[in-house]
């Protein structure tokens, strides 16, 4: 009981302190700050919006906040979040943009002070449940109550707008169907002219697991798969979530394969157009890849376990996938050689795809300006 009272007293004191400071913090509507992926890299929707806004309104003062001290670069207006300039920017900014949360991407407490506009650009169209719809512990819920209150949240298309609103517990008026800035508008035909077909394997992250198991459990024969790639002049690039860890044996098998590579680039979206085929399961990258109208092989190997044990999902898998569904790596090879149902792909694009005619960054800019 004693500890409970102490925690309550602490929270009340913090609330009183923040309320007093809140009244004296002056925010500059021309100073906009950005961060993404827990402040560890310049990527995703905040990064592409940041680049576009430099052209849209050169009069804005744009600052990037990082939590990796090695990325601090004053010449590029990139500040470590605990540096003097970083703190000053977070205290003075009129607008903040994040990919995950103001708690994870910035020094979140500073963005609770004053009338700063908090914009959630998010990092993927939802197939798996997110935010309040996902299973979470007490600490995660506490963080959401305190920090995840946004003036504007971006949705990739109209069909997902209601899902986004419910997941963040906001009215639909706060959800802007602008599409994602990272899905570029210049999606016309681009050729590499090297005669090589690149295939991207990008599975989703599984909560609570760090050791990547989808190769071993579902029959990946690296030698056989690489032979097929070599004979067909194709290359497989493997893009895992940063928290996924390959076994040493898997690493050696990939390193010894002539036509297999691990993609560890900072931003996969920058090169997404180069791939002729995407292999994925529940990753939101599938929604971005729809913009290119290319072949997607669906490989939800562990569907029953994932949908029951992990976060759960928003749609029946048949709504977003194209048969045949691969249940192991042997079936992936079969799917790579099979005829593809592009008519079904067009139906999925019309329902879940982003409108390529929309200038996402321009639309977000105008809406944010209207918040003042």
UniProtKB/TrEMBL annotation:
Q: What topology in the membrane does the UniProt record assign? A: Peripheral membrane protein
Q: Which GO terms describe its cellular component?
A: plasma membrane
Instruction: Name the species this protein comes from.
Output: Vibrio parahaemolyticus
A Pfam family matched in the record: Glyphos_transf
If you read the UniProt record, what top EC class would you report for this enzyme, in one word? transferase
Protein name listed in UniProt: Teichoic acid glycerol-phosphate transferase
A GO molecular function for this record? CDP-glycerol glycerophosphotransferase activity
InterPro entries assigned: Glycerophosphate_synth (IPR007554), TagF_C (IPR043148), TagF_N (IPR043149), Teichoic_Acid_Biosynth (IPR051612)
Q: Gene encoding this polypeptide? A: tarF
Instruction: Provide the family line.
Output: Belongs to the CDP-glycerol glycerophosphotransferase family.
Its primary localisation, in coarse terms, equals membrane
Supply the alphabetized keyword list. Cell membrane, Membrane, Teichoic acid biosynthesis, Transferase
**GO biological processes:** teichoic acid biosynthetic process
User: Lineage in the entry?
Assistant: Bacteria, Pseudomonadati, Pseudomonadota, Gammaproteobacteria, Vibrionales
EC number per UniProt = 2.7.8.45
Q: Where in the cell is it found?
A: Cell membrane
């Amino acid at each position: 009981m004693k500890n409970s009272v102490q925690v309550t007293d602490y929270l009340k004191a913090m609330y009183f302190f923040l309320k007093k400071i809140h009244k004296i913090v002056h925010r500059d509507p021309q100073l906009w700050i950005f961060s993404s992926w827990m402040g560890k890299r310049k990527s995703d929707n905040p990064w592409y919006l940041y680049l576009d806004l430099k052209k849209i309104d050169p009069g804005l003062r744009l600052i990037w906040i990082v939590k990796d001290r090695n990325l601090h670069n004053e010449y590029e207006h990139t500040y470590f979040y605990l540096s003097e300039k970083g703190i000053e920017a977070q205290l003075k900014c009129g607008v903040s943009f994040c990919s995950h949360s103001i708690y994870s991407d910035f020094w979140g407490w500073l963005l609770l002070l004053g009338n700063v506009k908090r914009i959630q650009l998010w990092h993927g169209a939802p197939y798996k449940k997110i935010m309040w719809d996902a299973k979470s512990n007490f600490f995660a819920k506490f963080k959401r109550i305190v920090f995840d209150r946004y003036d504007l949240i971006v949705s990739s298309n109209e069909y997902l707008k209601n899902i986004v609103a419910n997941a963040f517990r906001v009215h639909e008026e706060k959800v802007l169907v602008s599409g994602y800035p990272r899905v570029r508008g210049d999606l016309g035909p681009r050729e590499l002219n090297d005669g090589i077909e690149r295939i991207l394997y990008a599975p989703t992250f599984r909560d609570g697991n760090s050791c990547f198991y989808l190769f071993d459990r579902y029959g990946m024969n690296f030698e056989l798969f690489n032979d097929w790639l070599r004979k067909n002049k194709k290359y497989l690039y493997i893009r895992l979530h940063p928290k996924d860890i390959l076994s040493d044996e898997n690493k050696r098998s990939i390193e010894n394969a002539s036509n297999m590579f691990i993609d560890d680039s900072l931003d996969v979206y920058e090169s997404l157009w180069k791939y002729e085929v995407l292999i994925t399961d529940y990753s939101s990258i599938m929604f971005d890849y729809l913009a290119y109208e290319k072949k997607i092989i669906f490989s939800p190997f562990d569907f029953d376990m994932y949908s029951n044990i992990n976060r759960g999902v928003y749609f029946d898998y048949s709504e977003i996938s194209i048969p045949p569904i691969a249940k192991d790596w042997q079936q992936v090879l079969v799917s790579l050689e099979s005829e593809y149902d592009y008519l079904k792909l067009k139906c999925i694009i019309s329902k879940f795809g982003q409108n390529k005619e929309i200038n996402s960054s321009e639309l977000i800019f105008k809406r944010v300006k209207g918040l003042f």
